[in-house]
Amino acid sequence: MARQSVAAAGAAALAAPAFLLPSVEAPSRALSHEATVQQPIVNTAGSLRHTNCVAVAVGLGAAAATARRTKKAPRASLVVRQAEGRLLRPRDRTDGHGWVKEDPDFNAADESAVSATHTIELKKRPSGIKRYTHGMDGKGAMVMDMNEKARYPGDPIGQAAVAGVKKGYVVKSVNGTDVRNWDFEDIMDLLEDFIPDPDVQSTAAFKGGAQRVRKHQQVPFPVTIEYVEMKPMEKSAAAPAAPPGAWMPRLSGWSDEDLMKERQRAMAMPEPAPGYNGPRYTKAADIDDAWLERLKQFQQTGGLIPKKDAYLLVLDVIAQLKSEQTMNRVQVGPGQKLTVFGDLHGQYFDFMNILSMAGMPSPNTPFLFNGDFVDRGSWSIEVILLIFAMKMKNPNAVFMNRGNHEMLEANMIYGFAGETGAKYDLDLFNLFSESFRNLPLLHLINNEVLVVHAGIPGPRPRVWLPGQTHDPEDAVPVNARATTLAEIASVDRYTELTPNSYKEAVDSAPRTEEKWETDSRMIIDFLWSDPRGGAGYGPSYRKSRGVFMFGPDVTAQFCRENNISLVIRSHEVKAEGWLKDHDTLMSVFSAPNYLDTGGNKGAFLTLTPGPNGKLQASPTSYTAVPHPDLPPMYHQNYIVNNHPHLTRQMRKKQVAQADDFGDSDFAGYQGPDEWEEVDAGATLNAMSS
Question: CB 3.0–4.6 Å: which of 77, 150, 165, 532 could bond 138 by disulfide?
Answer without folding.
Answer: 77
